[in-house]
């Protein structure tokens, strides 16, 4: 693996060259800023896959922050309905009417620390008061107003809670959030779990929960919080008992643990300026305390996917067969390496997709093989750039085939953050792609036994 890894790391070290005096796009559009970023990644923004990327990224940022332009008052004002008999003036919790809970509201926000979207399941409970109830759909509409901003979980929970309390004046509000943030590639690598490879998929996410409450939910004598939790449990949602979020928030965004000072980001000041200009275009203030390091962190994220000038060094990959798992099919030995984790950047949306790659291959007559670190290097090499999943799958298959010269089959499974942030996909849903070359293409038995090996590993790995 040495040669390949070094080849890759070497490729990351040269400073980025900027031609033609680009300059900071302070007065430009988000689209202009994205073009600057693409150039910084060593890409040609006129190539086919990227031509519409600036437009898509700008649209996603605008839609993802539309909440700044929305007013809760407009949503709530025509949706308060008179409901007699809710107030009987007795007691506290049960006295102003019953508990109302809307569960499993799927939302997403852009992380204010790194500008990547994170996924949210939001649960809202409130106790109506003053003989008024709010149309149920408005609870999720109000939550979405605050999700569609640059956020972090704790503040989001507080803002939703306060907005509902202020706009409908109920006896109390409880907001609970479960949030998932993508892991950074650096951390993804550290978290490889060879004992349970498929758990690496789960380790691609940082999870946290946050909650906020007002009124009757904060009264010590009230059992409403427990009842709220109990109603969530019906749906299989189990909130952390101590979800006030204090401890977890610090490490919530993985980019916060990156040391930006020691970074070579000074050479990326044009890119950092471009990201700051995006923030301004979104009516955000880049000097707001929480946003001060954000352009740096976003650029740092992007630089993981810089186009490298080096070709993959395919020599040095072959090893003699050793203790590798393999099985015999029709006289041929098939090797499979499963659950090799990867994180790539979708070139259409400039957002990550991440998951695992499974590789099956026939050994050649010369008994050449690639060991797991070698395959992981191939996966890493092709994923650390602007990509689409179909091409990634094909390129990995071709690279392995190039070395071994026999049949290769590759299955990639991924979560696409761009799909999550467009509401198409939820955390946990998955896109699979497959590439089949050589002997595998003609051998249905080999194909099905490889697929079976994958499903077995998924079933037992957790
Ligand atoms: Zn973040
Ligand atoms: Zn995409």
UniProtKB/TrEMBL annotation:
GO terms for molecular function: GTP binding; GTP cyclohydrolase I activity; zinc ion binding. GO terms for cellular component: cytoplasm. It comes from the Eukaryota. The keyword Ion transport does not apply. Residues 30-182, 273-454 form the GTP cyclohydrolase I domain. Pathway: Cofactor biosynthesis; 7,8-dihydroneopterin triphosphate biosynthesis; 7,8-dihydroneopterin triphosphate from GTP: step 1/1. This is GTP cyclohydrolase 1. It comes from Platanthera zijinensis. Keywords: Hydrolase. GO terms for biological process: tetrahydrobiopterin biosynthetic process; tetrahydrofolate biosynthetic process. Its EC number is 3.5.4.16. The keyword ATP-binding does not apply. Belongs to the GTP cyclohydrolase I family. InterPro entries: GTP-CH-I_C/QueF, GTP-CH-I_N, GTP_CycHdrlase_I, GTP_CycHdrlase_I_CS, GTP_CycHdrlase_I_dom. PROSITE patterns: GTP_CYCLOHYDROL_1_2.
């Amino acid at each position: 693996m040495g040669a390949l890894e070094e080849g890759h790391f070497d490729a990351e070290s040269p400073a980025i060259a900027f031609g033609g005096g680009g300059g900071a796009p302070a007065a430009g559009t988000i689209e202009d800023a994205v073009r600057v970023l693409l150039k910084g990644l060593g890409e040609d923004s006129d190539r086919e896959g990227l031509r519409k990327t600036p437009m898509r990224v700008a649209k996603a940022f605008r839609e993802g922050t539309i909440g700044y332009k929305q007013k809760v008052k407009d949503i709530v004002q025509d949706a308060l309905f008179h409901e007699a008999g809710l107030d009987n003036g007795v007691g506290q919790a049960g006295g102003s009417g019953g508990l109302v809970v809307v569960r499993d509201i799927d939302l997403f926000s852009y992380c204010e620390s790194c500008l990547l979207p994170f996924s949210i399941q939001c649960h809202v409970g409130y106790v109506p008061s003053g003989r008024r109830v709010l149309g149920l759909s408005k609870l999720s509409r109000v939550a979405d107003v605050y999700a569609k901003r640059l956020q972090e979980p704790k503040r989001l929970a507080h803002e939703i809670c306060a907005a509902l309390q202020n706009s409908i004046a109920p006896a109390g509000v409880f907001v609970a959030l479960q949030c998932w943030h993508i892991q950074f590639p650096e951390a993804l690598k550290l978290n490889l779990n060879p004992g349970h490879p498929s758990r690496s998929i789960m380790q691609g996410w940082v999870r946290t929960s946050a909650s906020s409450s007002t009124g009757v939910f904060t009264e010590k004598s009230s059992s409403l919080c427990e009842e709220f939790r109990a109603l969530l449990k019906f749906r299989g949602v189990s909130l952390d008992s101590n979800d006030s979020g204090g401890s977890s928030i610090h490490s919530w965004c993985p980019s916060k643990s990156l040391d930006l000072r020691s970074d070579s980001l000074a050479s990326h000041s044009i890119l950092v300026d471009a990201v700051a200009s995006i923030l301004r275009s979104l009516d955000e203030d880049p000097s707001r305390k929480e946003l001060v390091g954000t352009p740096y962190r976003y650029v740092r994220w992007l630089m993981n996917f810089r186009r490298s000038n080096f070709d993959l060094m395919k020599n040095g990959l072959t090893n003699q067969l050793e203790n590798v798992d393999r099985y015999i099919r029709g006289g041929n030995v098939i090797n499979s390496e499963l659950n090799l984790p990867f994180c790539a950047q979708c070139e259409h949306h400039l957002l990550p997709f991440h998951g695992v790659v499974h590789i099956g291959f026939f050994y050649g007559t010369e008994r050449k093989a690639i060991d797991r670190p070698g395959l992981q290097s191939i996966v890493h090499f092709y994923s650390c750039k602007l990509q689409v999943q179909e091409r990634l799958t094909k390129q990995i298959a071709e690279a392995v085939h190039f070395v071994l010269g026999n049949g290769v089959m590759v299955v990639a499974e991924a979560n696409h953050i761009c799909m999550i942030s467009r509401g198409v996909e939820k955390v946990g849903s998955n896109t699979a792609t497959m590439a089949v070359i050589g002997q595998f293409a003609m051998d249905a038995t080999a194909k099905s036994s490889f697929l079976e090996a994958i499903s077995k590993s998924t079933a037992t790995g957790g």
